[in-house]
TrEMBL record:
SUPFAM superfamilies attached to this UniProt entry: S-adenosyl-L-methionine-dependent methyltransferases (SSF53335)
InterPro entries, A to Z: Methyltranfer_dom, SAM-dependent_MTases_sf
GO MF entries: methyltransferase activity
UniProt GO BP: methylation
Transferase among keywords: yes
Lineage of origin: Bacteria, Bacillati, Actinomycetota, Coriobacteriia, Eggerthellales
The entry's keywords: Methyltransferase, S-adenosyl-L-methionine, Transferase
Organism listed in the record: Eggerthella guodeyinii
Record-annotated Methyltransferase domain positions: 61-153
Keyword Lipoprotein among UniProt keywords: no
Name of the molecule in the record: Class I SAM-dependent methyltransferase
């Protein structure tokens, strides 16, 4: 890597910070979602876009893999059939609990899961392959640099972009907060820039997706007002959020529709990739 790119990469890492607290970077949000996620099926290598990227590009045979933000373990379990060993980590203790049960049911002896915050966790790396699939665990310069530093041979990420959360975006506007879609777009652009400045040539793919979530009204009020909209709303803002959710609820349920373009990026590592912010 030339010195100018090194300096530019270090500056990018320093400037790439998280936006206002709130949203999905909170263990309580994922604990509340774990009951739904435990029923997600293990993806197929035949039709899952992220696995297709890994099958085409990643050196998986005999590899050690780190799955950051593993959720209920479905990608870790899929990878266990091709890699030597997979380690999944997640902020949510409930997600990790279900991931362990799902792996046991699948008979995966070469997968382990641990609960913790990726930002502060000490991990016995490096790993041959490091992935971060649709997780807020890697969403700023510090965590992206840590991901790069843990990878020996290959990295891959999946990130939402051009995303709209029908209910959450409306509630944020209601209390005077900018919706988070643009910030997610910027995250992917900064991730691409970091990989490029590190001297890598990434493979980039995308697909369109729609996610739907249904929450009981009482649970939705607590989750949106205390966590998703922001973690520091005042009493008046929380009351406004609760009132709007009651108006949106149908038969005691608040339905959230999320439309997004999912951006996929994978790249081969080398000595210049093992850099810290």
């Amino acid at each position: 890597m030339v010195a100018a790119d090194q300096r530019a990469l270090e500056a990018l890492y320093r400037s790439w910070t998280r936006s206002r607290s709130g949203g999905y970077a909170d263990a309580a949000v994922w604990d509340a979602s774990a009951e739904e996620y435990k029923d997600f099926a293990v993806p197929s290598w035949d039709d899952d876009p992220f696995l297709e990227l890994l099958a085409d590009d990643a050196p998986l045979d005999g590899a050690t893999v780190l799955d950051i933000g593993c959720g209920s373990g479905i990608y870790a379990i899929a990878l266990a059939g091709r890699a030597a060993h997979v380690t999944g980590i997640d902020l949510s203790g409930k997600m990790v609990e279900y991931a362990r049960l799902k792996a046991a049911d699948a008979g995966c002896a070469n997968v382990e899961f641990a609960q913790g915050d990726f930002r502060t966790m000490r991990l016995d790396g490096p790993f041959d392959v490091v992935i971060a699939h649709l997780t807020p665990a890697v969403a700023d310069g510090e965590t992206f640099a840590k991901m790069m530093g843990l990878a020996r041979r290959y990295c891959a990420i999946a990130k939402p972009a051009r995303r709209t959360d029908a209910v959450l975006d409306e509630l944020r506007r209601l209390v005077g907060i900018e919706p988070g879609g643009r910030g997610m777009d910027d995250d992917f652009l900064k991730a691409f820039s970091a990989v490029w400045l590190a001297g890598k040539v990434p493979t980039v793919r995308s697909y369109e997706d729609v996610w739907r979530v249904a929450r009981p009204l009482d649970a939705a009020v607590g989750l949106y007002a205390d966590r998703l909209v922001a973690s520091d709303l005042d009493a008046g803002q929380k009351a406004a959020v609760a009132e709007r959710l009651r108006a949106l609820a149908a038969d005691g349920v608040v339905e959230e529709r999320i439309d997004t373009t999912v951006m996929l990026m994978g790249w081969r590592m080398g000595p210049s990739g093992c850099m810290r912010a």
